[in-house]
Amino acid sequence: LMGWQTFATVFGTVFLAELGDKTQLATLLFASRAGTSLLAVFLAASLALVAATALGVLAGAAITSHVQPRYFSYVAGVGFILIGIWTIWRA
What is the rounded average pLDDT of the residues 39-63? Predict the structure, then answer.
C-alpha cells in the first residue's frame, strides 16, 4: 500500500531539487538540437532518472540495515549545507 503523504513529500522534494540542475539543462540542450526526436530525449532522460533513482532507493534500503536513518539524515544535511557553501563560494 502506498503512503500518499510520503509520495507527495518525495515528489515535491525531488521535483524542486531537479529544477534547473545540470540534468535538466543537459536535457534542454539535447532537445534544442534541430532534427532531434523530442520523444527520444524525453524517454532517454526519464529512463536515466528512473535508473538513478532506483540505485538511490536500493542504496538507502541497504544503508538502513547498517545505519540508523537519523544519522544518515544528519550526514545528508551536512552534505547539502557543504554543497550550498561551495556553490555560493564559486558564484
Answer: 93
How far is 31 from 83, CA to CA, in rounded Å? 28
**Can you tell me the distance from the alpha carbon of 58 to that of 83, in angstroms, rounded to the nearest whole number?**
23
The amino acid present at 89, given as its one-letter code, is W
User: What is the DSSP code string of 31-57?
Assistant: HHSTT--HHHHHHHHHHHHHHHHHHHH
Taking the complete model, does pTM exceed 0.70, yes or no?
A: no
Average pLDDT, the chain: 89
Residue 56: how many other CB atoms lie within 10 Å: 11
CA-CA distance, 31 to 37, in Å (whole number)? 8
Instruction: State the Cα–Cα distance between residues 68 and 28, nearest whole angstrom.
Output: 38
